[in-house]
Specification:
α7 links the parallel β8 and β9. The chain has helices spanning 12-21, 37-42, 50-53, 67-75, 98-109, 123-129, 140-151, 165-193, 198-206, 213-223, 233-250, 255-269, and strands at 3-6, 26-29, 45-46, 59-62, 89-92, 114-117, 120-121, 132-137, 154-161. It starts with a strand and ends in an 18-residue tail after the last helix. It is α/β, with parallel strands linked by helices and 287 residues long.
Length: 287
């Protein structure tokens, strides 16, 4: 199966590299042309536009920042949809609007093109190591056909139901992760202010009921004031905006989600958007 990959950012580039390493013939495109060079060195081919990518692959993966970018790549001028052959498959691994995803799948289906929504969790380390959690929505038959592709990029692949369900599941993930992150931020701040040894505190808490992925993986980064982006604050703020849109559509009360969204938006407004998620602590610890 020939794969075309669009979007070679912090997450997309290592995901694409893992596809090459797994033996998939790969063609790539990014709006920043230079990002393709490391993948070309691994044996991938580069295309100058999404449309130029079309004849190079049978299955197309998008890994882009937000809903408008996915729509532009699929349906904009020079986009994929107008040139894809019936029977092609589009897998959107971005985190975007569930309702837009359902509409994109419908529009592609009118052209005989299948679509899966398959957002991921695990950040840049998971993308690099091929251990991402992948949540897939779409037709099960198409999911099963694409499973070897997912297995090259992730270690936990879950079929969640029809189109849109992958995106909805990812938003649940972001809500839970955000609240865990906020708890870790407050815990680190409390430990530091109380004069505790942060390494010992991290070890003690990790072994009990309050332990979490955020505490064990991002807690040490906060303790070391390491804010390098594995997943940027500005993108997390976008994901929380999508979660707020979904809970509003459903008429749910979600006070924790709204608080986290406000704090991430505040972090972006304070110029912290390019930092990784551990940088949220800098709202209270500017140094």
């Amino acid at each position: 199966m020939r794969v075309g990959f669009i979007g070679l950012g912090i997450m997309g580039a290592p995901m694409a590299a893992n596809l090459v390493k797994a033996g998939f013939p790969l063609a790539v495109h990014d709006c920043v042309r230079e990002r393709a060079a490391p993948l070309e060195a691994l044996g991938a081919r580069a295309a100058g536009s999404p449309a130029e990518l079309a004849p190079m692959a049978d299955l197309f993966i998008t890994m882009l920042p937000d809903t408008p970018q996915v729509e532009a790549v699929l349906f904009g001028e020079g986009g994929l949809a107008s040139v894809l052959s019936p029977g092609s498959i589009v897998i959107d691994m971005s985190t975007i609007s569930p309702s837009a995803t359902i509409e994109f799948a419908r529009r592609l289906g009118e052209r005989g093109v299948e679509m899966l929504d398959a957002p991921v969790s695990g950040g840049e380390p998971g993308a690099r190591q091929g251990t991402l959690s992948i949540m897939v929505g779409g037709r099960r038959q198409i999911f099963e056909r694409c499973l070897p592709v997912f297995e090259a990029m992730g270690s936990k692949i879950v079929y969640t139901g029809p189109n849109g369900n992958g995106q909805k599941t990812k938003l649940v993930n972001q809500v839970v992760g955000s609240l865990n992150l906020l708890a870790a931020v407050e815990g680190i701040r409390l430990a530091r202010s109380a004069g505790l040894d942060l390494a010992l505190t991290l070890e003690a808490v990790a072994g009990g009921a309050a332990g979490s992925w955020m505490w064990s993986n991002l807690g040490p980064k906060m303790a070391a004031r390491d804010y390098a982006p594995g997943f940027m604050i500005k993108l997390h703020a976008k994901d929380l905006r999508l979660a707020i849109e979904l809970v509003s559509e459903l008429g749910l009360e979600a006070p924790g989600t709204r608080l986290c969204h406000e704090l991430f938006e505040k972090a972006v407004a304070h110029g912290l958007g390019e930092l990784g998620n551990p940088g949220l602590i800098r709202l209270w610890e500017p140094g």
